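INFO  loader      accepted 1 record
INFO  loader      residues=280
INFO  predictor   begin
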Amino acid sequence: ATVTNDLTVNHNAAVANDLSVGNNAAVAKNLSVGQNATVTNDLTVNHNAAVANDLSVGNNAAVAKNLSVGQNATVTNDLTVNHNAAVANDLAVGNNAVVAKNLSVGQNATVTNDLIVNHNATVTNDLFVNHNATVTNDLKVNNNASVVKNLTVSGRLAIGGGSFSHLSNTSNYDLLVEKNIVCAEVRVSALTNWPDYVFDPNYSLRPLSELEHYIRDKRHLPGLPPAAEVEKQGVDLGDMNRKLLEKVEELTLYILEQNKRVEALEAQVKQLQGAGKGDR
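INFO  predictor   done
INFO  writer      dumping tokens
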């Protein structure tokens, strides 16, 4: 079906092969296209829109319910979907993309301005957003994710194509990254019970003989997890830093205690040396 100017349908529109519209296309109910759909200007569908192959819109695309595209979807300006949007291959939006429920993209998703998804968003390959990205629930990207400005995810953000089975207790965390993270700075906030208590005069420092016995028996320092536990569960960075600082401060006390004993022994040696010279 080829329409040189505007296409207006007051009920359903079903095209078995390609649909080409030279200006605007407005469908009051459902739109179904068996092959490719090309609209030079605006596309407005008041119910569902399903395109078996490629969808290309030269300006804005607005779908009141669900949008389903079997191959690629390209919208030059704004894309607005009031329910779910599913694109089997690539999604490219020249301005803003707003999806009221779930967004699913089988390959790459590129949004030149803002991306807003009010439920879950899943991108099988790369996600690129040139401005802000806001996802009310969960966001999963199986490959690369690039957001030039702000990224807001109210649920869980998962990066990487695996099942995260090698990570433990993933249900308790909001950010999952399958591989490595590189950043300029990491700040762990809301830490309590920082170990300055070690320097309290009433702190009970374990005697070195008892510490030696513990290390021989357990093969790790008191208060620190053994290697087998770390291999299985990993470590909490904030908690581990707190525990390591506790050990450093205890070590400082041991050094100060040993220094006092050394100074006392040196004084005794000098005293004995002086007494020996007097006897001569």
